[in-house]
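Q: Hi! First time doing this. I have a protein sequence and I read that you can turn it into a structure. Is that right? Here it is:
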Amino acid sequence: MGTIFEFQQSSIKLITMKTFQVKVLTQKDEALVENLLKDLAQKGSIEFSENAPESEQEKPHPATENQVQEIIDESEIGPYYSEKEAKDILNL
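A: Yes, that's right. Below is the predicted 3D structure, encoded as structure tokens:
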């Protein structure tokens, strides 16, 4: 729906930096907000970058059967320790 901007504000006196996330709620105001942020950036007051909207960000997807089988196969190849050996390694 809206565009999300992230920008940082720094203060030389306090040497602090804050990060804000701005969500533009109406499409008609996107240009206005972006221009305000660009003006502040040109003055050196802030740095900002535009992120993809949440709906466009890549969402995780489940592993395929082949990926799951590969993980299982690799785990079976790994070293096996008895309970005593594991406790010795972990200093328990």
